[in-house]
Amino acid sequence: MTRKTDNWQEALDLLVKGNENFYMGATQHPERGRETLFAQYVQQFPFAAILSCADSRVVPELLFDVGIGDLFTCRIAGTALSDAVIGSLEFAVEGLGVSLLVVMGHENCGAFRACIEKEGHANVRGISWQLTPVIEECKNQGITEPGELLRESIILNAKKVARQLRSLGPILGPRVTNGKLKIIPAYHSLLTGKVVFFDPVD
Ligand SMILES: [Zn+2]
Questions:
Q1: What's the confidence (pLDDT) of residue 120?
Q2: What protein residues have CB closer than 5 angstroms to ion ligand 1?
Q3: 111 CA to centre of ligand 1 in angstroms
Q4: Above 70 in pLDDT, residue 118?
Q5: From the CA of 1, how far away is ligand 1's center (Å)?
């Protein structure tokens, strides 16, 4: 096995094409059998890393129609950052040579909904302290309609997390600066299955 590409633009093109397969209902289901797993027993070659929500409806390998070993995925409720998440992503970039990192929020995210409606279990506080300021920032921009507030908060969070990661030393930030790594925010629609990628500097 080898990596499908080391080039971030080609990696993004693969994700865009795979997602098109998904939302058009034309998935190829590539390389998901045990032979693919066995072939990567010694080493893995993911071409992209995805930070997304733990939501059961958000499954990057299916959404992007890729196989075993193609994506390094970190899934945490609300697509929130923590030291463990950052360490995982740094491993993907430094240890596995990934050149594209996508920070993907998704439509109707329950973690944001819980923060907006101030519901949820006690331990949601471990995430809500990060999500609530984003929601407040959207409110301060005059966004008050509940559906719009939910959507815009999720998108703003993906953009803010991407921005934070881009400026983070010593692994991610310098690689972004020298062009070896792109960190791109994105939004996944549960209604259509489509993933919208935002500008790499958003
Ligand atoms: Zn979610």
A1: 63
A2: 53, 55, 109, 111
A3: 5
A4: yes
A5: 33
Bigger pLDDT: 202 or 11? 11
How far does the centroid of ligand 1 lie from the alpha carbon of residue 160, in Å?
Answer: 16
Q: Ligand 1 centroid to 56 CA: how many Å?
A: 9
Q: Tell me which DSSP letter residue 44 carries.
A: -
Distance 126 CA to ligand 1 centre (A): 15
**Averaged pLDDT, 27-38:** 93
Does the 8-107+155-197 domain belong in CATH 3.40.1050.10?
yes
- Report the pLDDT averaged over residues 167-190: 96
Distance 62 CA to ligand 1 centre (A): 16
Confidence of residue 122 (pLDDT cuts 50, 70, 90): low
Please give the torsion angle defined by the CA atoms of residues 9, 12, 13 and 18, in that order, rounded to the nearest 10 degrees. Answer: 160
Judged by phi (left if over 0) then psi (alpha if -120 to 50, else beta), residue 172 lies in alpha
Q: Find, among 112, 158, 109, the residue nearest to 139 by Cα.
A: 112
* pLDDT single digits (tens) 45-80: 999 999 999 999 999 999 999 999 999 999 999 999
